[in-house]
Amino acid sequence: MRDARGEIRRLPGPRLWLAGGWLAILVLAALLAPWISPHDPLAQDLFAGRLPPVWEAGADPNYLLGTDSLGRDVLSRILHGARLALSIALIAGTLTCLIGATLGLIAGYYGGWVDLAVSRLVDIWMAFPPVLFAILLIAVLGTGVTSIIIAIVVIDWTRFARVVRAEAMGQAQMDYVASAQVAGRSRFGTVLAEILPNVLPAIVALLTLEMGIAVIVEAILSFVNLSVSTDAPTWGGMIAEGRASVHQAWWVLVFPLAALFLTVLSFSQLGEGLKDHFDPVLR
Amino acid sequence: MQILRRILIRLAASLVTLAGAAVIVFVVIRVVPGNPVAMMLPPGATAEDIQRLQELYGLDKSIFQQFLIWLTGVLQGDFGTSISLRQPVAELVLGRLPATLELSVMALVIAVGLGGAMALTATLWRGTRTEGAIDVAGGMALSVPDFLWGLVLILLFGVLWPLFHISGRISPAQGFEFHTNFYLWESLLRLRFDVWADIVAHMFMPALALAIPLAAIISQLLKQSLKETLHLDYVTLARTKGYSETSIILREALPNAILPTLTLIGVQFTFLIGGTVIIERLFSYEGLGNMAIDAVINRDLPLIQGIVILFALLFTVVNFLVDMTYAALNPRLRHA
Amino acid sequence: MSYLSIENLDVRLHTGVPVLRGVSLNVAAGESRALVGESGAGKSMIGKSVLGILPRALQVTGGRIVVDGEDLQALPPRTRRQRIGAKVALIPQDPLTALNPSRRIGPQITSRLVDFLGWSRKAATDRALELLEEVQIHEPARVMRAYPHELSGGMRQRILIAAAFAAEPKLIIADEPTTALDVTVQKQILRLIRQMQERHGTALLFVTHDLGVVSKVCQTMSVLYAGKMVEDTGVREFFRQPGHPYSAALLAATPKYTDPEGSLTPVPPGVIAAVEAEVALSDRRREAAE
Ligand SMILES: Nc1ncnc2c1ncn2[C@@H]1O[C@H](COP(=O)(O)OP(=O)(O)OP(=O)(O)O)[C@@H](O)[C@H]1O
Ligand SMILES: [Mg+2]
Questions:
Q1: What gap in Å lies between CA B263 and CA B269, rounded to an integer?
Q2: Chain centre to alpha carbon of residue A114
C-alpha cells in the first residue's frame, strides 16, 4: 500500500491524458448515476439472476453487463459504486493530507520533543499492517462512510507528515528565517510562506496518490464486508460477491474489478505525472 | 565495538516501537462498542452470566489494570485465551505463523528474482525499446496494489487458464500428516515432492500477487544504481580486461549496486508482510492475516491483540535483520 | 614495425560533432611515447578508442586502429574485447575509484589471468605476489586480502600498475596516472612506471598535459590540439626546438621543473588563432579530398 519510488522518469503525455480522461468520465458517471443507470442498483429480480453480459449467449438485452446472483444490474451498481468510491477518495484524501501535513509541519518547525514524539509515532505506525489496522478501526468505529474516512486518515497521515516534516526541518534552519525575524516578521509565518511553495507540488502529487489508495482501502473494507452496508452498491462488495461465484459468473467480478483497476491506476499515474511535471528533481 | 553499539541502539529503538504499538492496540480495541462477551453467550444468558464471563476475561477492570495484567502475562509468554476459539492465543497464533512466513518468504523470493531479472535485462539493453517496455510494465506494477493483482491473477490463472489453485493452502485430498506447520519445508525435507508441488500450486498465486509491486520497486531502484555504477572507473577498467557486458554487469556492477536496493527491500518486505492480511483473505489461505480478520469480525480481543503484536514484532525483527545484513555485506562498515 | 598504429582515426559525437579528426599515431614495441595537449584536446579519447571504452555518446566513424598487426575495427566485438584484454592494459587516472570497493585486492589483480588466459588460481596468486613486490609493496600477502578502502592512494596506484603488468601486455596506456596523487608520491609512481616499462619491455602510451612529466618518462611524443595531431617528435628535440607554433606556445606556458619559480608565459592569443586557422584549413582540405 505504501510506495517507495526509485528513479524519476518523465512520463509521456498520453498516459497522463488517459488517466485524466478516465477519471473525468468516472466523475461524470458518478454525478449522473441516478439518471443514467438503466436500473435501480438495489432492485432484485430473482428470475433474472446471473444473466451474462449482452454479447454472450442467453443474455437479456436489458442488462448490458449482466446481473449478479440476486438479479441486480451490474452496470447500475458500478455507476452507483463510483459515487461512493469518488466521494471517499475526495474527502478522505483531503483530510489525510491536511492532518498529515499539519503534523509534519509542526514537527519539522518546532523540532525538539514535539518532533521526537511525531517521529516515534510514525515509527510505531509503520509497525502495523495498514489493512489490519483499518479493519480494526472499522470494527471499533462501526461500519459507515464516516468510519471509513476516519480509518483512512488514521492509517495514512504518516505519508504526508514525513514529506512535510523533512522540508520544514530544512527550511526552519535557514538564515533567512532568522533575518525575517529580525525584521519583525513572525518566524512561523516566514517558514510557512517559504515551505508551502516548496512542498506544494509534492503534496499535490501525494494527494492524488492518496485518493487512489483511499479507493482501494474502501474496496478492501467492503470486500471483507466492513464498509457501508451489505446491500449498498460498492465496488469492493461486488468484487467479494464476484470472487465467491467466479467460476459461475465471471462478469460479476470482471467489470467492477476493471473499474477499480483503472481508477487506481489513473490516480497513481496522474500523481506520478504531476510530481514529474512540477518538479523533476523531487526525490 | 561499533557494530555492537549499533545493534544495541537498534534494539532499544525497536523495543520502544513495540511497546508503543502494544499500548495503541490495547487502547483502541478496548473502546470497541458492543460487548464481546455477550455475543459469545446463547441468547438466553442472564446479566449474571455475562458478569461472570467478563470477570473471567478480566474485562471488568480498568484499561490500565488490564494492560498491566496483559503485560505481566506476555512477559511470561502468556498472551491470554481467545474468546471465540477458546484456546490459548499464543498457541493459535504460533500455529498460523508458519503459513504466513512461508507465503511472505516465497513472495520475497519471487519479487527479488523477478525484479532482479527486470533490472538486469533493462540495464543490458539500456536505451532500447526493451528498457522502455520494462519501465512501462514496472510503472504499472507499482501503481496497482497487491489486492488488485491478486484478483487479476484469480481471473487469469484461476478461471481463464486454470493452472493454479486459487484458494486454500493444500488440497484436502492430499491427506498428508504434518508434524509441523511449515508445510512447504516439511514436505520438501520428507521428500514428498508431490505434496510439495501441490502446496506450491496453492501458494504461487497469492505469493505472486504480493510480489508484483515489490518486484517493480526492486527493478527500478536496482536499475538506477546499476546504471550509476556502470559509469564508475573500476567498471571501465574491467571492460578493458575483456569481459562481456553481461559479466561486467553481474560481476563488477551488481555487487556494489545491490547495497542500496537491499535496505529498500527490507522496508518493503515489512509492507509485503502487511499485505498478507488481505491477500490471505482473498485466497482463503489459512495464515495469520486471515485469522486476524476473523478475530476482528468476532471481536476476539485477546486474539486481535496477540496477532497485532506478533505482526509488529515480525516487522521489527525484519528491519533489524536487514540492518545487520547491510552492515555485514558492506566491507566499509565491516572493517571500520 | 609499430606495435600500435592508429591511422586517420575519426571520432564523433552522435550529434556529428567531431572530437578526433584524422588522428594518426604510432607506438613501436618497447617505445615510450607521450601524448600531450591541453585539456579537452581529445587525448583520453584516443586511449579509449584503442581500449574500446568510448563513452556511449561517442563513436569511431573512420580510420583504423591496428594492434600487433591486427585491425581491431575489423574483428567481431567478442574477439576484439579479448584481444585488447590480452594485449593492451590501462593504468587509470584515479586510483581511488579504479578499484572495485566490494572485492579484495587479490582477485582484482589476478582476474584477467584466471578468466581469460587459463592460469590456475594458485599460479595467478603467486604471480600477483611477485608483482606486488616488484612495485615495492610491503606485506603483499596481507594487501592481497585487503579491500581497497584500507589502502592509501599511492598504494592503490602501485596495485593498479601491478595489475596492468600482470598479463605481460605488449602495450600499456596510462591516462594521467599521477594527477590524483600528492606531489611526492607522483615522483615515485612516475619512476616506478618507467622502471616497469623498461624492465618488461612494454610499449607505453603516456597521456598527460604536464610537459614536466614527459621528459621523466618518455622518449618520443605526440602533440594533440583540438582533436588533430600537430606534432610527432622526440622528447629531446621537442624541448630543444618545438616544430609547431602551438608546441612552442605550450612549452613556453609550462613551468620549468628546473625553475619552478620562473614566470609563466601564457599561450598568446595570436598563436591559438593561427593554429585554429591552420586546423580549419587542413580540415577543409581533407573534406575536399573526401
Ligand atoms: N561523454 C562525453 N560526451 C560528450 N562529449 C565528450 C564526452 N567525453 C568527452 N567528450 C568531448 O571529447 C573531447 C575530448 O575529451 P578528452 O577527455 O579526450 O580530453 P583530454 O584531452 O583527455 O582532456 P583532459 O586533459 O582534461 O583529460 C572534449 O572536448 C569533450 O567535449
Ligand atoms: Mg583526459
A1: 10
A2: 29
What the block records as the C-alpha cell of C71 is 585491425
Q: Which three cell numbers stand for residue A65?
A: 453487463
CA A199 to chain centroid, in Å, comes to 20
Go through the domains of chain A in sequence order and give each one's CATH number: 14-32+62-278 (1.10.3720.10)
Whether B192 contacts B170, CB under 8 Å: no
User: What is the CA(C17)–ligand 2 centre distance, in A?
Assistant: 18
Instruction: Provide the sign of the torsion angle of the four alpha carbons A57, A60, A63, A69, taken in this order.
Output: negative
Rg (chain B; Cα; Å): 24
Cell of A273: 505525472
The 10 Å CB-count burial string (b at 16+, else e) for A225-246 is: ebbbeeebbbbbbbbbbbbeeb
User: Which ligand is closest to the CA of C36, given by its number?
Assistant: 1
Dump strand ranges (E) for C87-149: 88-91
Look at residues B281, B310, B283 and name the one whose alpha carbon lies nearest to residue B293.
B281
**What is the distance between the alpha carbons of residues A156 and A207, in angstroms, rounded to a whole number?**
11
Q: How far is the CA of C207 from the centre of ligand 1 (A)?
A: 13
**One-letter amino acid identity for B261?**
T
Pocket-testing residue among C6, C43, C209, ligand 1, by greatest number of atoms within 8 A of Cβ: C43
ipTM of the complex: 0.85
Q: C117 near C86, Cβ under 8 Å?
A: yes
DSSP letters, B163-216, are -S--SSSS-GGG----SSS-HHHHHHHTT-HHHHHHHHHHHHHHHHHHHHHHHH
- Residues B296, A136 contacting (CB under 8 angstroms): yes
Using CA of residue B137, residue B139, residue B142, residue B143, what is the dihedral sign?
A: negative
Q: Which residue has the cell 454479447?
A: A55
A243/B151 Cβ within 8 A? yes
d(CA A30, CA A86): 8
| Cβ(C45) – ligand 1 distance below 6 Å | yes
Chain A: list its partners (3+ Cβ pairs within 8 Å): B
* Cα–Cα nearest to B123, from B4, B232, B2, B254: B254
Neighbours of B (≥3 Cβ pairs closer than 8 A)?
A: A, C
Q: Name the DSSP letter for residue A41.
A: T
CA atoms lying within 13 Å on the CB side of residue C206: 29
Per-residue pLDDT of chain B (336 residues; tens, 9 = 90+): 567 787 788 788 888 888 888 888 888 777 666 666 666 666 667 778 777 777 777 777 777 888 888 888 888 888 888 888 888 988 999 999 999 999 999 999 999 999 999 999 999 998 889 999 999 999 889 889 999 999 999 999 988 888 888 888 888 777 778 888 888 888 888 888 888 888 898 999 999 999 999 999 999 999 999 999 998 899 999 999 888 889 999 988 998 888 888 888 888 888 899 899 999 999 999 999 999 999 888 888 888 888 988 888 888 888 888 877 777 776 665 544
